[in-house]
Amino acid sequence: MTDGSTRRTMLTTGTAALAATCLGCGNNKSSSSSSSTETPTASESATASESATASESATAGSSASGPANSATGTVLAQTSEIPEGGGMIFKEEKVVVTQPKAGEFKAFSAICTHMGCTVSKVADGTIDCPCHGSKFDITDGAVAHGPATKPLPPKSITVSGNSITLT
After folding, report:
1. Which of 12, 17, 34, 62 has the fewest CB atoms below 10 angstroms from its CB?
2. Three-state SS for 3?
3. pLDDT, position 69
4. What is the DSSP string of 7-41?
């Protein structure tokens, strides 16, 4: 044998051994520990998606488990869940719904116009941002206290019966 063929043989054998070792390190479904770097297979993703869709269908119209989708938009809450003179923040939808006075519902972006933080509470007639202290009026989203200089943009909602829907 020549030196060239010995090197080639060693490289081929080493590569095959490395590949076999890597295959043995794949996902072990029976393991009790979970890693955040695991990537689901296509069939696992499809199954998870079907389960999520089935779960959403089962909870449609129920605000207790979160907003549900309808043909005309996303049902956010029941009117009784939004306190008069206050409001509720829907982080996933990035919207805040307020009830400035009885039966009057308004919606605004939940993203502060100052630096893009998500507002964290509605209290004492204002929508408050935790990052730098900006406050916005619950009636029109106007800046009540800086450093923000622009109002919260309005969002479109409809109230039908007791349901508030993001449209």
Report:
1. 34
2. helix
3. 60
4. HHHHHHHHHHHHHHHHHHTS--TT-S---TT----
- The Cα 64–Cα 8 span in angstroms is 66
Q: What is the pLDDT of residues 2-51, one digit of tens each?
A: 555 555 554 555 544 444 444 444 443 333 333 333 333 333 333 333 33
Pairwise CA distance, residues 73 & 127, whole Å: 24
Q: Are the beta carbons of 165 and 75 closer than 8 angstroms?
A: yes
Is 69:60 a contact under the CB 8 Å cutoff?
yes
Gap between the Cα atoms of 166 and 74, Å rounded: 5
Exposure class string for 18-34: b at 16+ Cβ within 10 A, else e: eeeeeeeeeeeeeeeee
Residue 15, token pair as written in the block: 């590569």
Round to whole Å and give the CA distance between 128 and 103: 22
